[in-house]
Specification:
- It is a single chain.
- By secondary structure, the protein is an alpha+beta fold.
- It has a domain of 174 residues.
- It is 19% helix and 23% strand.
- The strands form 3 sheets. It has a 6-stranded antiparallel β-sheet with strand order 1-2-6-5-4-3, with helices on both faces. Strands 9-10-11-12 form a 4-stranded antiparallel β-sheet. The chain has a two-stranded antiparallel ribbon with strand order 7-8.
Length: 291
């Protein structure tokens, strides 16, 4: 028997993140229940099948997130509008909001969003890592750390990263009368500046190129739009790489992806990776409550 969507890692990760807001957001309050007559042909077949059976569907990854048939979808919009962070700041920026002045870049980023769009606001935080001579500008660090070998992200195939990097992910809600989707964008680009004004950062170029142009405006065949992603310079790759990622095989419990990218600074360095991810129920590892 299949696992209920609310018992999957994708759902649990998103649900846990929603408990960080004030008031907390409990998605189950807005579930309308299963509907065997659901059409929604623009959704992936396995998502549509889950909506028919459970009324809620969990994708194989948090980037595609959770989709559900909603009751009181307008109430969810109001909940998102008043949501705060633990520090008391607004949690989400709303696209095309009649209550606030237009923000062209934010509104443009919602072009592929069904219904009403809300993006989590990212606020930079100072690192507690002690300063190092490696932080000093220039090859020799003003005479300190002279000739010390250093790891170069631009020529590392992106394997060696800070063990505790800055979290730049961002929740994105799309709320419509027929369904709601909430997922986690890997590179958040809406953040709050020092003056409190919303700012769209350089990660927007990655979003616009991959999500708006490649997947939406170019008119690609459905398989290509769903399984092929562009890799453009963004903060996750230190704004240093161009490439492409292809899902060779994808189903509910298994995903095989091949990725190739090249550095855009210095020499022409390229790399490729093959990744396999999924879930299993071997040796009684099926999540408790699964059927």
């Amino acid at each position: 028997m299949s696992t209920h969507p609310t018992m999957t890692d994708t759902y649990r990760k998103i649900a846990a993140r929603l408990t960080m807001f004030r008031p907390q957001i409990d998605l189950t309050q807005y579930f309308a229940g299963p509907n065997p007559d659901v059409r929604l042909y623009e959704e992936k077949p396995y998502i549509r099948d889950q909506l028919k059976k459970y009324g809620v569907a969990a994708a194989t990854n948090t980037l595609d997130g959770v989709t559900f048939l909603a009751k009181d979808w307008q109430g969810l919009i109001e909940k998102l509008r008043v949501a705060k962070t633990a520090d008391g700041f607004d949690a989400f920026a709303e696209g095309r909001s009649a209550e606030k002045p237009a923000h062209w870049a934010l509104d443009l980023s919602m072009a592929a969003t069904i219904g009403k769009g809300f993006r989590e606001i990212w606020r930079p935080q100072l690192s507690d890592r002690p300063l190092s001579t490696r932080d000093l500008p220039g090859r020799h660090g003003f005479g300190l750390g002279r000739d010390r070998g250093q790891w170069s992200d631009a020529y590392s195939a992106q394997f060696g990263k800070d063990p505790k990097p800055q979290d730049i992910t961002s929740l994105h809600f799309a709320v419509a009368p027929d369904r709601v989707n909430v997922h986690i964008d890997e590179t958040g680009f809406v953040f709050e500046g020092v003056d409190g004004a919303l700012t769209v950062g350089p990660n927007f170029a990655h979003h616009a190129g991959n999500e708006l142009f490649w997947k939406t405006s170019l008119g690609l065949p459905k398989w290509a739009a769903e399984h092929i992603d562009l890799i453009l310079p963004n903060s996750a790759n230190d704004f240093s790489r161009l490439g492409i990622s292809v899902d060779l095989y994808q189903r509910k419990d298994l995903r095989v992806t091949v990725t190739g990218s090249c550095g855009i600074f210095g020499g022409f360095e390229c790399s490729g990776t093959l990744s396999v991810s999924g879930t299993h129920d071997l040796l009684g590892s099926k999540p408790k409550g699964a059927r």
